[in-house]
């Protein structure tokens, strides 16, 4: 135990020393990290477009933000797992069901790892998937609208971290648990963790036409922690690779007790073999309660369905489906190069980078070169799967991406740098500092057979002297490097929505042709849509009132309403009649316990207002839409609950 504590103290001492050294750097305009005329490389002239989209996770914000590269300009924040008052996501009646879970309405999550759909091993720009880490969920964003259109909850999971990564023909997106738990959940002593807690690796099928998700099967694994994952590609297509740590199966004082083994594992999963087993009737249905939420673009509304069972698979029932590759030590990132030959395990507590060979793995499996097993799953001999080692490249390796030119780039958290090394020779060829404590990095297309090896984006955890101070919490940060030449060149710092974890990127030209500019009114199937001003009306059903309202520059119809009573539940169903690109309208009602609505052209959205006091209460447009925006308003008269005031509405004339 003393040796373990000494080792932990030594690691912490190195971290403090490097952090202290890095944080003494000063970045002013005369002596900063940037030299030469690099500003030209990131300058995008007014009216011109960036070459790439970068989709950067928001971590604890529960969102996904969209930036242009090389400019670093923020284009949009896409709400996914968190409510967003700007867009009314999670506030309006249409999107509230998107945040439903088996635990009830959960309007937040910890979003980590976005990944773009692929076709034939190349990113195709159709959808992007991202995980919710806290309440296990996977979301799909449609890149024609940049809106979240589906969220599926993951049962039998906790800390949905090794997610969401997509196979090279978008057959599956995976959701691997970070924390092992009792499966099924039950009341039991935590000290009985070992041998009783289990991990789950969920394979979620993706409909090739619409992207609709469904849990195909869950692989129930030994009770380790499953950290990150990536799919095989090319020659290793049909396999998935997951890092594990805590193979000790400790449940307390994890920084010591989960760091005792010299090697943990990368789990290699032959999902093609398991898919065949399942398609032939294999697996066991297990009771499980989880929400599946789908947004329908035709009705502009989401529905939430509570599922009651999930198909589970015991790996021992599918011989040859799962193997363990020993990997030093507490590996975090698990990354596969564009050819599918090399699997990189980034051991956080290892001095070296370990690279496994897929070809050698298959040979070891065929020739049964095993070093025993873990819970019946074969462990391949370390030397028989090892492709090579990058010797002492830095301190605290985390994640690796590839440029498609035979080079790999790895982040080092403790030594705060990105290190470039060559596949096959394992030699370090370049390194550049980060400011500071870098986590993930991203090369557009770096998680595919065809990376666009022009830029790498590093996402940093600490920025204490990089920006003007903003109190105890300093802005989150990304840094952009040019990797088109032999040497990396730092081009740009830019702040990000916090906290950035991973990112996905692709050329803008993949997405722009599919970008939707408006919703066609004739395709609007919302049950409360008013598709022209003649359709506007107010309908009472007991104490529930439905207002069928339209909006167009520069008025609401109706703009005056009477006959609403204290205690009513009033639903404003507002349709934007505009059919011009980039002409949204907003609406907000005084006293409404929700956000404003922001309604795109041709779209219908709804908010609920429950008046509690008599009076005449205004509503107005919240999105500046014309020179007469200030005049875009209306009134609702609220009478006592027992009033006999009739229900009336008007536009342009006095109410009689």
UniProtKB/TrEMBL annotation:
Top-level enzyme category: oxidoreductase
InterPro entries in alphabetical order: Copper_CuA, Cupredoxin, N2O_reductase_N, Nitrous_oxide_Rdtase_Sec-dep, Nos_propeller, NosZ/Cyto_c_oxidase_sub2, WD40/YVTN_repeat-like_dom_sf
Cell compartment(s), UniProt: Cell envelope
Keywords noted in UniProt: Copper, Metal-binding, Oxidoreductase
Entry EC no(s): 1.7.2.4
Any Pfam family the entry gives: nos_propeller
PANTHER family: CYTOCHROME C OXIDASE SUBUNIT II (PTHR42838), NITROUS-OXIDE REDUCTASE (PTHR42838:SF2)
Record-given protein name: Sec-dependent nitrous-oxide reductase
Organism: Jejuia spongiicola
């Amino acid at each position: 135990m003393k040796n373990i504590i000494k080792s932990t103290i030594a690691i912490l001492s190195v971290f403090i020393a490097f952090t202290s050294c890095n944080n003494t750097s000063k970045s002013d305009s005369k002596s900063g990290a940037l030299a030469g005329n690099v500003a030209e490389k990131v300058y995008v002239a007014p009216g011109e477009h960036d070459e790439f989209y970068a989709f950067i996770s928001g971590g604890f914000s529960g969102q996904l933000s969209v930036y242009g590269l090389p400019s670093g300009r923020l284009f949009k924040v896409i709400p996914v797992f968190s409510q967003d008052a700007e867009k009314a996501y999670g506030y309006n009646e249409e999107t509230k069901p998107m945040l439903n879970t088996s635990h009830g309405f959960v309007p937040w999550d910890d979003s980590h790892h976005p990944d773009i759909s692929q076709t034939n091993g190349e990113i195709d720009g159709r959808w992007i998937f991202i995980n919710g880490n806290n309440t296990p969920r996977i979301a799909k964003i449609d890149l024609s609208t940049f809106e979240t259109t589906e969220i599926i909850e993951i049962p039998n999971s906790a800390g949905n971290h090794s997610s969401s990564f997509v196979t090279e023909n978008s057959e599956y997106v995976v959701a691997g648990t970070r924390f092992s738990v009792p499966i099924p959940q039950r009341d039991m002593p935590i000290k009985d963790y070992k041998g009783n807690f289990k991990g789950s690796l969920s394979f979620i099928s993706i409909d090739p036409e619409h992207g609709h998700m469904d849990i195909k099967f869950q692989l129930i694994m030994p009770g380790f922690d499953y950290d990150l994952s990536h799919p095989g590609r090319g020659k290793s297509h049909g396999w998935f690779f997951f890092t594990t740590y805590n193979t000790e199966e400790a449940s307390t004082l994890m920084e010591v007790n989960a760091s005792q083994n010299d090697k943990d594992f990368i789990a290699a999963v032959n999902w093609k073999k398991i898919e065949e087993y399942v398609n032939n009737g294999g697996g066991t249905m297990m009771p499980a309660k989880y929400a599946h939420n789908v947004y329908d673009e035709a009705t502009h509304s989401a529905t939430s369905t509570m599922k009651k069972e999930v198909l589970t698979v015991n790996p021992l029932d599918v011989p040859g489906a799962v193997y363990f590759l020993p990997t030093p030590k507490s590996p975090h990132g698990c990354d596969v190069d564009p050819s599918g030959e090399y699997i990189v395990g980034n051991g956080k507590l290892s001095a070296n980078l370990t690279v496994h060979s897929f070809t050698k793995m298959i040979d070891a499996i065929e020739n049964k070169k095993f070093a025993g097993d873990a819970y019946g799953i074969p462990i391949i001999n370390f030397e028989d799967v090892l492709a090579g080692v990058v010797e002492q490249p830095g301190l605290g390796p985390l994640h690796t991406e590839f440029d498609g030119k035979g080079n790999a780039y790895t982040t080092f958290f403790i030594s705060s740098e990105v290190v470039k090394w060559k596949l096959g020779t394992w030699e370090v060829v370049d390194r550049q500092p980060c400011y500071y404590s870098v986590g993930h990095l991203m090369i557009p297309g770096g998680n595919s057979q065809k990376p666009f090896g022009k830029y790498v984006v590093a996402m940093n955890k600490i920025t204490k002297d990089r920006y003007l101070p903003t109190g105890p919490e300093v802005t989150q940060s990304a840094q952009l490097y040019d990797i088109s030449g032999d040497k990396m060149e730092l081009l740009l710092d830019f702040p990000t929505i916090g906290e950035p974890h991973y990112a996905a990127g692709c050329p803008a030209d993949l997405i722009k042709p599919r970008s939707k500019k408006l919703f066609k009114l004739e395709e609007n199937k919302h049950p409360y849509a008013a598709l022209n001003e003649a359709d506007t009306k107010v309908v009472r059903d007991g104490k529930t009132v439905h207002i069928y309202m339209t909006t167009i520059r520069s008025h609401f119809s109706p703009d005056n309403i009477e006959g609403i009573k204290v205690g009513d539940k009033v639903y404003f169903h507002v349709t934007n009649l505009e059919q011009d690109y980039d002409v949204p309208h907003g609406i907000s009602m005084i006293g409404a316990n929700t956000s404003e609505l922001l309604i795109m052209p041709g779209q219908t959205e709804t908010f609920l207002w429950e008046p509690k006091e008599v009076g005449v209460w205004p509503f107005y447009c919240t999105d500046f839409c014309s020179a007469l925006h200030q005049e875009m308003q209306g009134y609702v008269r609220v009478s006592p609950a027992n009033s006999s005031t009739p229900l009336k509405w008007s536009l342009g004339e006095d109410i009689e």
